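thread: overnight batch results

M.L. [08:02]
morning all. the overnight job finished for the chain we discussed friday. pasting input first so we're all looking at the same thing
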Amino acid sequence: MTTTDPHFGFLLALAASGNQQVSPLIQLIPFALVLAIFYFVILLPMKKKQKKVEEFLSALKVGDKVVTSGGLFGSVAKLGEQAVQLQIAPNVRVDISRAAIVGFQGQAPVVDAPSS
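M.L. [08:03]
and the structure it wrote out:
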């Protein structure tokens, strides 16, 4: 819109009329809309994904073939509260964090690997 637009003067006059009091509740509507959009677009999907990851990690059992975020393939040999022991080769076991497991071998990862 340029200043030569015939409606520009009308819009300028409409915007300049400051004699009217605007309710504070009306002023909060745009802020509430932004918060609602933020919640439904960002927070709700993150909560669903986090719940899915927690269910996956709590359902792990001995013998599951898994992949870690570092790219190790192995089978679960022992489960702990915070750590999991993976057998990555015959007679080779490593302890890793439970949170480092991103999915089952041969399936799409449940957890997105952290980007470094």
